[in-house]
């Protein structure tokens, strides 16, 4: 359904935009209906940039992103609107996703103005109630309130409800839970899981490995804009190959297991084992399990 | 008042200043830094260049109507077409060279350069020659006695030995630093804000006329504004202010030791006439009847009393200055003169066919089209701006839609020269040796595309112009002859009203008596000279003011 | 002071808490006091001309008379009523301040929003222009322009002042827009298919409302002072009255040397009071909108 | 040895006082790292700040804090100054911006130390040692804060705060803004300070239970301005008694756990308002096991050695 | 860092170019032709005289070549310091008139700008920490900034000069003195300088004090100040840091205010009849001396640009954040 092909993003930074910052380099992956893909990486690795490119909030510098076979870069006004009917996003900070000047339910009204101008009040109210109950929100508690009167979890769910008002098939969830309390967070995660059951594809962006693992069918590990490892979640988490992935996993604080220095040794470069003389960016090391060369992106030689 | 008081720097040269008791501080003439000392550039040279340094053949005193031989010992018409001038004996330039008839001839011949202001001298002058060391003879093709009399007192003689090598540009636009003349003062120094002259101890008049100038230094201060000058005058930092100082009337009796020519209104001598100049090429201003109605609508008394606080006086209908009183034909004025009378103005309008057809209280043109006139005065000329408001109000009261506008003065100047105006104010004729200069201004022909000096209203009356030329060719001592012509001119002027005289501007002059006394005054026993340092006034006798000044008694 | 980054820092916190702001507004002595002064002067400016003569330039009294029962503020050298000139002049002051502030505010906002929201080359160019106008010595430019304008009335004056006062507004608005643009509700609006104009005016601008209001006050004050300066040096309107022109006239007719203090004290006091009260109101507003500055 | 006894700290606001700390009593032993966890708004930061410096709106309403037998004058800003840095110190939540941006770090430290009446030379060598300890180059002292990465700044602040070997160190959310690998380094550095006995006792505030589990000896759980439970780390994780603690632990996903396999559940509802808080047990409304008695505030009592809890069901 | 300055320089160069071009356009687009003006002033009576003079002045002012060449000549003259001839003080070169006036203006402006900035900052920082003081002086400062320059100047001149007679009003030094390095003269110069200086100082002072006060309040609320407080650093150190950091925006503020302050000097010089550039501007305007006006405008523009650049450099030197930001690294 959604396909990224060699997508790169270069930001021009510095005085007179003379410096290039390669935020995303040559990233490719695919998202199928009803599938959750989690995109994991440390801060600044380009996760949000990928999400924004998919939502066409930012344009890719090179590569193509296709949705149902259409290159989204070609979308114009009307067709873009249709694209947004099917693909929506929810962001990290629920408080900044709401315009603090206005009531929270304005995000719903905006959808009505653009997508359902002809809908009657009663019918609309019905839709809103449906969407809210899908995210287990009580309409009386959230409608007609200012954002600061609602909790982060409520706001985040309201945003998902907003997406549900449309017939979305793809949801980009960019760190939707990192600002939430441990207890609230799980509710939102469970909600996403339910949506997946309803056939929704979710791109789940996070830096928290345990959360990425909880939900995802497939996992993509990003480092400095490049994919270092990807594949089925069970494969990536069960048999992390790339040293970076291993470091990440070893650093995750887990209840019941204290940090130790084991598991950090990745052994010889598995990419080179497959492609000794170099080859595609990712090498297949198992069933639905790809990995990049162990060397960083900057070094040419793998030692 | 601290270091700034009149006695500051009284330690003499050693103290770094000009000894106060020996220095005369003047202001009111110089409106930009002293920038040239070229007597030919008679509109811009540093104050004192002519008079204190360069001198003229004669002085002319308008108050007594007398010519006083100055560099010249005498000057006479030896025939109808020849004039001979004899210089005093033993005159020298301040560099020691003798002043000779050749210098006089040279100066006159400079007029052949087109850019020299008196170039038109050669329209009627045939030749000039030095007869001997001291005598110069001028032969005229078409003698213009009045103009020539004007020339001999107004234009200074320059030294040939220093000027002969100058290029035409240098003569007409050069700065002439280090001026060498013959007068009572020498160039001392100048600065952005002042011109300083120091006494010439070898001045010829000390011996020849037993005259000497009292102040050792004359410091002429550059003006920034009139109000600043007032402050300086009140503090005694300026001895003579030739600035327009509104409100001075209320200060004369205020214990500031202020002195004016008259002790009561108008305090000042009248120096020139302010006219309202209608553009006679435009309807309805081309209609003498309308101009007359307009003239009657002006409340001159309010201008004199309120705008000027009575330091000016209302003008005679002819506009001739008080010094020219003898030339005014009272009969003509009695018959054709005008005065402020709103009712009369309305009557005249009605009679001439200007009626209020749309009932707004303002008359329309004869053809019924709306009539709207503007009176332009340069912005920042506050007294004129105020006066223009009063004029506009008076006109409105009479039913004339007259609006006062204040464009930048360059704009007004352009309007004036190109004739792109309805009505303006002007006052470009000073008191002078002959009313011919006045009538030349009023009737000057031919009208050119750009009118740069005369007849801005573009009034065309060949007969009047012929009379003016006839007047010019009349001898200056032929009073009856002059009056005969002038009377005819006045009849034309008052029936046609090409200009509308309103008030006499003063010869602005206020002195502080703290340091110097014996200022010119109308009082019995005081010197009656013109109290002004304005350009052109030293030769009108004002230089004699300096010879009459006395240091104040020191306490 | 006008470009004070501190003023922008917490502008966001202003929003959404309208009732709280109102609560603080009413309690804030600076805001209330300043507001009262401004309102009183506004009232005088609006109604005053009915109580004084129609023509403030008419010669209605004795020349140069001090304040008296008949002429509260005395008369000018010509016998014009200073009070009448004052109330008419106040009108001009409010007019110039408002119009110039509106022009500069709108220009600054348009440039600032465009530069901040569009970014890229548009931003570069606009920022460049802004900086160029910003470093021009504005008063010198205004003087030159004013000196050569043939028609000079209050409207023109307000216009040219407005045309040169916008750059710092543009800079501030751009900076705020940049930071607001990065906020996620803007992305959300884009995801909702809202057009650019709507995003700028319905999403970004309301968040800066309190800031823009304060900017307007500063612009108003600045314009009034600018206008007074121009008037004073004789480059003001060529007709009509204004407080600056009164000062100009008082100076030109030597009110100081003639001891006519009543001629030059009221106009200056009027300007200072109005602008000062507005500035103090601004501090009050800042305190209202910005919790950090509130007195505890 | 830190004793906190019935500490009450309120925030003054227009609409009445917020009772952010409503009677908390606990102690921290020497060489103990105590993790302080709880939901957002439960009063963790308030507690940390109370031990160091009350800000303008905070009011010390009651209770005492005793450190090694000396009572801290926490309500008196002036007298408290003598204890700060020397005896009690903090690594603040905002470590990213805690250093003066326009001063070289070394200069700032020198000025800070000097201002406390200590000659810089005397701590200079110690400073270098500490930098080595947390893995920072000594040359960072010549740099400006902006030239350091987040993790470096965090560690730098730790070094500064502990420079005078305080008896008590409060570390507030020191790792929240960092990514996992840096988080680990910083947390371990923190534990290192205790291990080398540079700090006697430490309170580590976080909302991440799994993180404190890695380094803390005991964990104190707060809920809505009150203490819920305190116990040694393993006890809290394995045998929590308070229903809130249990729910909190249960809501933590772990690597390897998938929703399909083990669906975690959150805690329904939200914490009560603290302005003023409702009577009785504050967790009552969200508690699956609440009963009548909960209308009364349960005391915070020790149910076994080192394990205290505030719940009627538990005691 | 080089790139940062490159960019700044580009802006300044562009500003300069724009300003010069505007400047060049002035006499060519505005009403009133300088040539006619000179001719008219001379009162030429004969048509030949008028024609000859026109020709002379046209070539003197360089109006006798095609427009593009006039523009190039203008730049050429500019770069060689030839700003043409003044009409107001004909035939003095504009440059020498400006050179004579500049010391007075700078003597007035530089102390007024720097002292008001320094004192305003000191005082503002001081007031920020004392609630009572703050509440009393803040309104005064606001009133000061709200005061029209000229009114304050008039009041000072009237009260201290005319009524109290403490200081002379008008002129740069007494007319009775010769400019020289003597005690009498210098005292006189200073006593004339004082009131204009004071008026400029006062009006600017309020603005700086307010700015500083606000900045310090924010700085005292910032994280590093809280951290220092938590470590028991004495208030003195915290305030010193707050002051230093608050100073940085004030430096930028100084650059921005320069243009405005130049304007203030114009007015002050008018009120006090002080012969600096401001007085020249007005004279040039009054007498439509385009060339002088062009020259002064250029001078002011260059002055403001140079001052801005210096301030930029200073700013970079004192604020590590800009340096780090500029490097592009960090
Ligand atoms: N608009 C932009 N202009 C310039 N650089 C940008 C822009 N947006 C992001 N970047 C840079 O691109 C890189 C990737 O940013 P991105 O936000 O995608 O990272 P991320 O993985 O989402 O990080 P985080 O976990 O902090 O959200 C970063 O170095 C960031 O600084
Ligand atoms: N300045 C303040 N004014 C009023 N109330 C405050 C203030 N600061 C905090 N509070 C309130 O005090 C309570 C405790 O806040 P505190 O910051 O201690 O929580 P926390 O546990 O640290 O939360 P977080 O995990 O979000 O940091 C909260 O209800 C909060 O709303
Ligand atoms: Mg991100
Ligand atoms: Mg906290």
Briefly note the structural class of the backbone of chain A. Answer: alpha/beta
Full CATH superfamily name of the domain at 2-97 and 170-224 in chain A: P-loop containing nucleotide triphosphate hydrolases
One letter per element, helices H and strands E, the order of chain A comes to EEEHEEHEHHHHHEHEHEEHHHEE
Helix content of chain B: 25-40%
Q: Please report which band the strand proportion of chain B falls in: under 5%, 5-15%, 15-25%, 25-35%, 35-45% or over 45%.
A: 15-25%
The oligomeric status of these chains comes to heteropentamer
Sheet of most strands of chain B: 7 strands, mixed
Spatial strand order of the main sheet of chain A: 6-7-8-3-9-10-12-11
Average pLDDT score of chain A: 85
Radius of gyration of chain A: 20 Å
Sequence stretches where pLDDT stays below 50 over 5 or more residues of chain B: 1-15
How confident is the prediction overall: mean pLDDT of chain B?
A: 90
Which ligands appear in the coordinates? Answer: adenosine-5'-triphosphate, magnesium ion
Based on DSSP secondary structure assignment, what is the total number of beta strands of chain B? 21
Strand tally of chain A: 12
CATH topology of the domain at 2-97 and 170-224 in chain A: Rossmann fold
Draw up the topology in text.
The complex is a heteropentamer of chains A (303), B (555), C (296), D (315) and E (330).
Chain C: H1 5-9, H2 18-27, H3 29-51, H4 82-118, H5 120-135, H6 138-148, H7 154-165, H8 167-181, H9 184-191, H10 196-207, H11 209-232, H12 243-252, H13 261-289
Helix pairs in contact in C: 2-13, 3-4, 3-13, 4-5, 4-7, 4-8, 4-11, 4-12, 4-13, 5-8, 6-7, 7-11, 9-10, 11-12, 11-13, 12-13
Chain D: E1 2-11, E2 18-28, E3 33-38, H1 44-50, E4 58-67, E5 70-71, H2 77-80, E6 88-91, H3 105-115, H4 120-133, H5 150-161, E7 168-172, H6 180-195, E8 201-205, H7 209-215, E9 218-223, E10 226-232, H8 233-238, H9 243-250, E11 301-304, E12 307-309
Parallel strand pairs in D: 3-8, 3-9, 6-7, 7-8
Antiparallel strand pairs in D: 1-2, 1-4, 4-5, 9-10, 10-12, 11-12
Helix pairs in contact in D: 5-6
Chain E: H1 2-29, H2 34-41, H3 47-60, H4 67-79, H5 94-128, H6 131-146, H7 149-163, H8 183-220, H9 223-230, H10 235-271, H11 277-286, H12 290-318, H13 320-327
Helix pairs in contact in E: 1-12, 2-3, 5-8, 5-10, 5-12, 6-8, 7-8, 7-10, 8-10, 10-11, 10-12, 11-12, 12-13
The structure holds adenosine-5'-triphosphate (ATP) (2 copies) and magnesium ion (2 copies).
One adenosine-5'-triphosphate (ATP) is lined by residues 11, 13, 18, 20, 38, 40-46, 57, 207, 274 of chain D.
Protein name (chain E): ABC transporter permease
InterPro entries (chain E): MetI-like, MetI-like_sf
Main location (chain E): membrane
Give your account of this protein's structure.
Chain C: Pfam families: BPD_transp_1. Chain C: Keywords: Cell membrane, Membrane, Transmembrane, Transmembrane helix, Transport. Chain C: The chain crosses the membrane at residues 31-51, 92-113, 125-148, 154-173, 211-235, 261-285. The complex is a heteropentamer of chains A (303), B (555), C (296), D (315) and E (330). Chain A is α/β, with parallel strands linked by helices and 303 residues long. Helix content of chain A is 35%, strand content 24%. Chain A has 12 helices and 12 strands. Chain A has an 8-stranded mixed beta sheet, sandwiched between helices. In chain A, a hairpin with a 2-residue loop joins strand 11 and strand 12 (289-291). Chain A is globular. The model of chain A has no long low-confidence stretch (mean pLDDT 85). Chain B contains 18 helices and 21 strands. In chain B, helix 10 packs antiparallel against helix 13 (382-398) and helix 15 (436-443) runs antiparallel to helix 16. The two termini of chain B are 17 Å apart. With 296 residues, chain C is mainly α. Chain C has a single domain, classed as MetI-like fold (Orthogonal Bundle), CATH 1.10.3720. Chain C contains 13 helices and no strands. Residues 1-16 of chain C have low confidence and may be disordered. Chain D has 9 helices and 12 strands. Chain D has helices at residues 44-50, 77-80, 105-115, 120-133, 150-161, 180-195, 209-215, 233-238, 243-250, and strands at residues 2-11, 18-28, 33-38, 58-67, 70-71, 88-91, 168-172, 201-205, 218-223, 226-232, 301-304, 307-309. In chain D, helix 5 runs parallel beside helix 6. The model of chain D has no long low-confidence stretch (mean pLDDT 88). Chains in contact: A-C, A-D, A-E, B-C, B-E, C-D, C-E, D-E. The interface between C and E is large, with 60 and 66 residues. The complex binds adenosine-5'-triphosphate (2 copies) and magnesium ion (2 copies). One magnesium ion (MG) binds at residues 44-45, 93 of chain D.
């Amino acid at each position: 359904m959604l396909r990224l092909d060699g997508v790169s993003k270069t930001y021009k930074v510095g005085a007179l935009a003379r410096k290039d910052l390669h935020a995303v380099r040559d990233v490719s992956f695919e998202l199928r209906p009803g599938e959750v893909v989690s995109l994991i990486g440390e801060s600044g690795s380009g996760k949000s940039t990928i999400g924004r490119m998919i939502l066409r909030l930012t344009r890719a510098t090179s590569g193509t992103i296709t949705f149902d076979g259409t290159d989204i870069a070609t979308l114009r006004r009307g067709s873009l609107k249709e694209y947004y009917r099917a693909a929506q996003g929810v962001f990290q900070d629920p408080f900044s996703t709401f315009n603090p000047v206005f009531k929270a339910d304005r995000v719903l009204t905006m959808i009505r103005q653009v997508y359902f101008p002809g809908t009657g009040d009663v019918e609309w109210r019905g839709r809103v109630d449906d969407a809210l109950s899908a995210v287990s929100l009580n309409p009386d508690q959230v409608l007609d309130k200012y954002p600061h009167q609602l909790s982060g979890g409520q706001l985040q769910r309201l945003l998902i409800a907003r997406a549900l008002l449309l017939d979305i098939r793809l949801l980009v969830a960019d760190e939707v839970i990192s600002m939430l309390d441990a207890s609230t967070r799980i509710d939102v995660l469970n909600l996403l899981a339910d949506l997946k059951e309803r056939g929704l594809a979710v791109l789940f962006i996070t830096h928290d490995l345990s959360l990425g693992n909880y939900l995802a069918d497939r996992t993509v590990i990003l480092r400095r804009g490049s994919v270092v490892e990807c594949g089925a979640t069970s494969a990536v988490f069960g048999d992390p190959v790339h040293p970076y992935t291993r470091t990440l996993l070893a650093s995750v604080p887990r209840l019941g297991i204290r940090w130790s220095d084991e598991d950090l040794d990745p052994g010889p470069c598995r990419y080179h084992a497959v492609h000794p003389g170099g080859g595609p960016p990712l090498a297949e090391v198992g069933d639905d399990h790809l990995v990049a060369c162990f060397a960083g992106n900057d070094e040419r030689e793998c030692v | 008042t601290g270091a700034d008081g009149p006695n500051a720097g009284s330690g003499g040269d050693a103290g770094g200043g000009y000894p106060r008791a020996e220095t005369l501080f003047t202001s009111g003439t110089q409106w930009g830094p002293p920038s040239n000392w070229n007597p030919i550039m008679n509109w811009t040279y540093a104050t004192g260049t002519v008079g204190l340094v360069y001198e003229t053949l004669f002085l002319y005193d308008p108050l007594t109507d007398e010519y006083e031989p100055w560099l010249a010992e005498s000057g006479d018409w030896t025939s109808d077409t020849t004039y001979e001038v004899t210089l005093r004996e033993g005159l020298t330039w301040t560099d020691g060279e003798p002043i000779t008839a050749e210098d006089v001839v040279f100066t006159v011949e400079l007029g052949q350069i087109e850019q020299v202001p008196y170039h038109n001298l050669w329209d009627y002058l045939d030749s000039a020659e030095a007869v001997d060391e001291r005598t110069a003879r001028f032969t005229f093709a078409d003698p213009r006695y009045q103009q020539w009399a004007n020339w001999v007192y107004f234009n200074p003689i320059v030294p040939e030995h220093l000027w002969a090598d100058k290029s035409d540009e240098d003569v007409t636009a050069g700065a002439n630093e280090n001026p060498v003349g013959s007068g009572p003062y020498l160039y001392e120094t100048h600065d952005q804000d002042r011109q300083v002259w120091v006494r010439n101890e070898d001045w010829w008049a000390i011996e020849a006329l037993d005259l000497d100038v009292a102040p050792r230094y004359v410091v002429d201060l550059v003006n920034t504004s009139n109000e600043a000058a007032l402050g300086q005058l009140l503090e005694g930092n300026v001895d003579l202010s030739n600035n327009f100082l509104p409100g001075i009337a209320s200060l004369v009796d205020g214990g500031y030791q202020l002195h004016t020519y008259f002790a009561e209104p108008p305090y000042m001598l009248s120096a020139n006439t302010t006219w309202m100049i209608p553009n006679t090429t435009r309807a309805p201003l081309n209609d003498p009847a309308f101009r007359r109605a307009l003239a009657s609508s002006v409340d001159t008394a309010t201008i004199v009393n309120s705008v000027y606080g009575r330091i000016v006086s209302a003008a005679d209908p002819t506009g001739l200055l008080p010094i020219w009183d003898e030339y005014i034909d009272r009969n003509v004025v009695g018959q054709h003169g005008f005065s402020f009378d709103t009712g009369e103005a309305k009557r005249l309008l009605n009679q001439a066919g200007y009626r209020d057809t749309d009932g707004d209280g303002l008359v329309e043109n004869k053809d019924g089209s709306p009539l709207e006139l503007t009176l332009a005065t340069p912005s920042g000329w506050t007294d004129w701006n105020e006066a223009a408001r009063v004029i506009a109000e008076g006109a409105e009261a009479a039913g004339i839609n007259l609006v006062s506008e204040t464009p930048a003065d360059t704009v007004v100047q352009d309007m004036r020269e190109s004739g792109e105006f309805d009505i303006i104010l002007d006052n470009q004729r000073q008191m002078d040796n002959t009313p011919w200069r006045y009538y030349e201004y009023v009737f000057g022909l031919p009208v050119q595309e750009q009118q740069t000096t005369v007849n801005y209203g573009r009034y065309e009356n060949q007969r009047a112009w012929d009379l003016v030329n006839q007047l010019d060719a009349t001898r200056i001592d032929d009073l009856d002859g002059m009056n005969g012509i002038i009377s005819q001119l006045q009849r034309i002027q008052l029936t046609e009203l090409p200009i509308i005289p309103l008030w006499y501007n003063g010869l602005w002059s206020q002195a502080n008596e703290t340091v110097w006394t014996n200022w010119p005054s109308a009082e019995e026993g005081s010197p009656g000279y013109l109290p002004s340092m304005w350009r052109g006034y030293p030769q009108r006798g004002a230089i004699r003011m300096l010879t009459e000044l006395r240091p104040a008694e020191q306490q | 002071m006008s470009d004070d980054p501190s003023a922008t820092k917490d502008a966001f916190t202003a929003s959404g808490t309208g009732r709280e702001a109102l609560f603080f507004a009413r309690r804030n002595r600076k805001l209330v006091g300043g507001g009262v002064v401004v309102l009183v002067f506004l009232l005088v400016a609006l109604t005053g001309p009915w109580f004084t003569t129609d023509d403030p330039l008419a010669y209605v009294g004795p020349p140069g008379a001090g304040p008296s029962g008949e002429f509260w503020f005395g008369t000018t050298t010509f016998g014009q009523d200073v009070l009448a000139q004052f109330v008419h002049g106040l009108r001009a002051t409010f007019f110039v301040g408002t119009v110039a502030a509106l022009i500069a505010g709108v220009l600054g906002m348009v440039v600032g929003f465009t530069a901040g929201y569009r970014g890229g080359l548009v931003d570069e160019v606009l920022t460049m222009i802004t900086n160029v106008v910003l470093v021009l010595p504005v008063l010198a430019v205004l003087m030159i322009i004013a000196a050569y304008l043939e028609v000079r009335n209050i409207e023109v004056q307000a216009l040219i002042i407005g045309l040169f006062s916008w750059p710092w507004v543009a800079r501030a608005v751009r900076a705020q827009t940049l930071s607001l643009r990065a906020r996620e509700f803007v992305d959300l609006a884009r995801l909702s298919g809202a057009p650019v104009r709507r995003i700028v005016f319905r999403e970004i601008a309301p968040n800066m409302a309190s800031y823009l209001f304060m900017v307007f006050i500063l612009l108003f004050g600045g314009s009034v002072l600018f206008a007074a300066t121009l008037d004073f040096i004789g480059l003001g309107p060529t007709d009509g009255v204004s407080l600056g022109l009164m000062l100009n006239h008082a100076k030109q007719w030597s009110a100081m040397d003639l001891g006519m203090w009543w001629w030059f004290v009221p106009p200056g006091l009027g300007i200072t009071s109005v602008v000062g009260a507005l500035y103090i109101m601004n501090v009050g507003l800042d305190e209202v909108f910005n919790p950090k500055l509130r007195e505890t | 040895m830190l004793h906190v006894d019935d500490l009450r700290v309120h925030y003054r606001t227009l609409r009445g006082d917020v009772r952010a700390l409503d009677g908390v009593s606990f102690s921290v032993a020497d060489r103990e790292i105590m993790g302080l966890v709880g939901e957002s708004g439960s009063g963790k930061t308030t507690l940390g700040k109370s031990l160091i410096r009350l800000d303008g709106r905070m009011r010390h309403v009651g209770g005492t804090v005793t450190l090694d037998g000396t009572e801290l004058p926490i309500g008196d800003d002036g007298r408290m100054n003598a204890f700060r840095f020397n005896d009690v110190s903090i690594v603040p939540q905002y470590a990213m911006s805690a250093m003066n941006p326009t001063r070289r770090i070394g200069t700032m430290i020198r000025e800070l130390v000097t201002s406390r009446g200590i000659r810089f030379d005397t701590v200079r060598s110690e400073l270098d040692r500490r930098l080595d300890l947390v893995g920072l180059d000594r040359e960072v002292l010549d740099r400006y804060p902006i030239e350091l990465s987040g993790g470096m700044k965090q560690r730098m602040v730790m070094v500064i705060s502990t420079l005078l070997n305080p008896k008590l160190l409060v570390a507030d959310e020191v790792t929240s803004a960092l990514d996992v690998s840096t988080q680990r380094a910083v947390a371990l550095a923190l534990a290192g300070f205790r291990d080398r006995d540079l700090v006697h006792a430490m309170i580590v505030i976080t909302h991440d239970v799994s993180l404190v589990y890695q380094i803390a000896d005991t964990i104190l759980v707060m809920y809505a301005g009150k203490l819920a439970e305190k116990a040694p780390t393993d006890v809290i994780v394995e045998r929590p008694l308070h229903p809130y603690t249990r729910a909190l632990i249960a809501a933590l996903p772990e690597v390897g756990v998938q929703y399909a396999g083990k669906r975690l559940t959150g805690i329904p509802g939200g914490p009560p308002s603290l302005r003023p808080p409702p009577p009785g047990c504050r967790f009552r409304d969200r508690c699956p096991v609440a009963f009548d008695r909960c209308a009364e505030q349960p005391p915070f009592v020790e149910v076994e050695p080192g394990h205290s809890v505030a719940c009627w069901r538990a005691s | 860092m080089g790139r940062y300055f490159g960019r700044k320089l580009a802006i300044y160069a562009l500003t300069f170019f724009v300003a010069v071009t505007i400047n060049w356009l002035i006499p060519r687009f505005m009403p009133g032709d300088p040539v006619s003006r000179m001719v008219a002033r001379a009162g030429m009576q004969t048509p030949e005289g008028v024609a000859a003079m026109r020709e002379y002045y046209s070539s003197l002012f360089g109006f006798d070549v095609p427009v593009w060449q006039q523009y190039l000549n203008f730049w050429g003259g500019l770069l060689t310091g030839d700003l043409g001839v003044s009409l107001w003080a004909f035939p003095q070169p504009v440059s020498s008139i400006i050179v004579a006036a500049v010391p007075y203006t700078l003597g007035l402006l530089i102390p007024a700008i720097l002292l008001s900035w320094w004192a305003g900052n000191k005082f503002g920082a001081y007031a920020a920490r004392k609630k009572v003081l703050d509440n009393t002086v803040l309104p005064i400062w606001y009133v000061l900034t709200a005061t029209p320059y000229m009114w304050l100047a008039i009041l000072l001149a009237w009260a201290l000069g005319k009524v109290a007679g403490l200081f002379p009003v008008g002129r740069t030094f007494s007319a009775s003195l010769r400019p020289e390095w003597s005690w009498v003269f210098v005292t006189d110069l200073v006593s004339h300088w004082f009131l204009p200086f004071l008026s400029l100082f006062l009006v600017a002072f309020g603005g700086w004090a307010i700015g500083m006060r606000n900045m310090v309040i924010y700085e005292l609320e910032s994280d590093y100040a809280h951290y220092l407080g938590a470590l028991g650093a004495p208030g003195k150190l915290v305030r010193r840091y707050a002051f230093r950091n608050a100073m940085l925006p004030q430096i930028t503020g100084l650059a921005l205010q320069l243009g405005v302050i130049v304007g203030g000097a114009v007015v002050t010089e008018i009120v006090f009849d002080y012969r600096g550039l401001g007085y020249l501007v007005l004279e040039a305007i009054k007498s439509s001396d385009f060339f002088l006006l062009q020259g002064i405008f250029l001078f002011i523009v260059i002055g403001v640009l140079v001052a801005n650049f210096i301030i930029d450099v200073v700013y970079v030197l004192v604020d590590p954040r800009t340096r780090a930001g500029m490097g592009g690294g960090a």
